[in-house]
Amino acid sequence: MKRKSAHGGGAPAALQEGLVVGSHGRHCVVETPDGQRVICHPRGKKTAAVVGDRVQWLASEDEGTIERVQERRNLFYRQDEIRTKSFAANLDLVLMLVAAEPVFSEMQLARALVAAEDAGIAPLIALNKQDLAAPFAQAWERLAPYRAIGYEVLPLSLSGSRAAAAHAALAERLREKTTLVLGPSGAGKSTLTNLVVPEARAATGEISQALQSGRHTTTTTSWYWVDRASHTALIDSPGFQEFGLHHIAAAHLPDCMPDIRAHAQDCRFYNCTHLHEPGCGVIAAVQAGQISASRYRIYGELYAELSRAPRY
Predict the structure, then answer these.
(1) Given its phi and psi angles, is residue 50 left (phi above 0), alpha (psi -120 to 50 degrees) or beta?
(2) Each residue's pLDDT tens digit, 264-285
(3) Rounded Cα distance, 57 and 45, in Å
(4) For residues 306 and 249, is the Cβ–Cβ distance under 8 A?
(5) What is the pTM of this model?
(6) Dihedral, CA atoms, 26, 31, 36, 37, nearest 10 degrees?
(7) pLDDT digits (tens, 9 = 90+) for 98-135
(8) Are 11 and 50 in contact (CB under 8 A)?
(9) Disulfide engineering: 36 pairs with which of 2, 152, 224, 249, CB 3.0-4.6 Å?
(10) Please, are residues 96 and 112 in contact by the beta-carbon 8 Å criterion?
């Protein structure tokens, strides 16, 4: 981790451009165009940055201050009753990694997909542990409704003899994109990161060592360059137990679920909730088998939750 030296007297320091590549709380690591990395702190709430942000910062002593966060293309985050948690900004892809074992939560997967749809970020579902034949077949079947509505599901085996094939498939899909990796404990998120970016552990240690100095603590979100040309990036996110969607209004939920959205235009009433109204195109589609029962159950549970959620 290289740090900027303090400026001496004379003319005031000029603003510098940078990319946020590590984040923990209000502290972050900014990478300069020449590859140097420096710890930075926001000037105020309006300059709080997340991994993936392009920023303008000012050197001060051996650290820096973020003076401006450039306009974002998008922001992927979750929100519950207590707080908002931002994962990363300016993404091309959200890779949602689940595994044949342990059994994944379809509700958690659906929540992450809704958040990606709301943010306008392309999602990719990856199913790990292809080498476990029976559990993988069951998990693949559970994901059939997602494939049916257009989500790409990539089969993988991130370890063992099939790891090279998984690496090739991922390299092709991630090329020249900035990708955030999400995944529950045990899905293989660390294995995926280390497979795609072999030097990831060294990079993580470098950032962590810097953030542990003084009052800083270990980073929880990290940016890795996959290629030397710095065109492809992978962002490793912290794990989570819950994925709140309180930033999404209940009336907007159908727009964030492709299978519900596809039939909502067939409803008799413009303000249909798709739960009990007569002449509802969504209910008709469920009855006709065009929308899976599990997906409709998830819609109903999320709609009820978001209807109770306070509006911020």
Answers:
(1) beta
(2) 999 999 999 999 999 999 999 9
(3) 15
(4) yes
(5) 0.89
(6) 20
(7) 999 999 999 999 999 999 999 999 999 999 999 999 99
(8) no
(9) 2
(10) yes
